[in-house]
Amino acid sequence: MSATDITAMAAAPDAKKHKMSYPVAPESEWPEAWLMKDTVEDQTKENRQEPNVPVAIADLKKLGIAYWKMDAESFEYPVKAVPWDPKDAMDPKLKAIRDDRRYSYADIITVHPDHLPEFETKIKAFFEEHIHDAEEIRYIIGGSGYFDVRGLDEQWIRVHVKKGDLMTLPEGIYHRFTCDEKRLIHAMRLFIGQPIWTPFNRPQEEHPSRQKYVHEFMEENKEE
Ligand code: KMT
Ligand code: NI
Q1: Bridge partners of 200?
Q2: DSSP at 181
């Protein structure tokens, strides 16, 4: 063990006391994001503008999105566990992030035509633009999919998440989800306290979570 490791370990209890958050991934590790074209015929396709308009990671951060790159290869997760009880096969980085951010609840689901009853209906529902009154936290442990979020100018930004991606969307952000063309995503859903997944479909301008989001992330950014 190097001297640096020992110093880092010694510093850890102090870091905890000061509620230092686990650092998000460097921008080079974040998922790809792009602006969507105006008309979506098939939600599972990339739906890029032509030519492609990439969205900078800095812009995702401005919307309140956070991201951690995880090692999903070295740990095994069940196809479905509601809730999921982490026994001894436990990813220490996942544990650290959960402790740090108080993600006390976790479950594991698989969205695929063979695993989710009424798959087509469900993915259409996920794709309705909505907010939640809490952070949306998803750790992708297999497969892939798209989270679409509204940018500051109302444009749809498509984020392609895949195995190993842990992404959080802030409370009150307008968003939607869809499987991609592979129609398979294996995900851990995390939550602070007792989970409430209720989507509040747009418009929700009077909803306290929306107002909080607008105040925290939109008013300031617009002033720049
Ligand atoms: C969501 O938020 O739409 C879902 O939970 C869908 C499956 S998890 C990627
Ligand atoms: Ni949602």
Answers
A1: 131
A2: T
| Percent of the chain that is helix, strand, coil (3-state, to 5) | 25, 25, 45
Confidence of residue 16 (pLDDT cuts 50, 70, 90): very low
Query: Residue 16: which residues within 8 A CB-CB, separation 6 or more?
Result: none
Q: What is the pLDDT of residues 45-91, one digit of tens each?
A: 999 999 999 999 999 999 999 999 999 999 999 999 999 998 756 89
Residues 183-197: tens digit of each pLDDT:
999 999 999 999 999
Measured by CA distance, the residue closest to atom 2 of ligand 1 is: 177
pLDDT band at 3 (very low <50, low <70, confident <90, very high): very low
C-alpha span between 157 and 150 (Å, rounded):
6
175 C-alpha vs ligand 2 centroid, how far in Å? 6
Give the 3-state secondary structure of residue 73: coil
List pLDDT tens digits, range 24-36: 999 999 999 999 9
- Distance of CA 83 from the midpoint of ligand 2 (Å): 18
Question: Any idea which residue has 């026994």 for tokens?
Answer: 87
Token pair of 65, please? 């999105």
Alpha carbons 89 and 177: distance in angstroms, whole number: 29
Q: Which atom of ligand 1 is nearest to the CA of 177?
A: 3
Q: Of 8, 1, 35, whose CA–CA distance to 160 is shortest? A: 35
Q: Is ligand 1 within 6 A of the CB of residue 126? A: yes
Tokens 């747009």, residue? 202
Closest residue to atom 5 of ligand 1, CA basis: 189
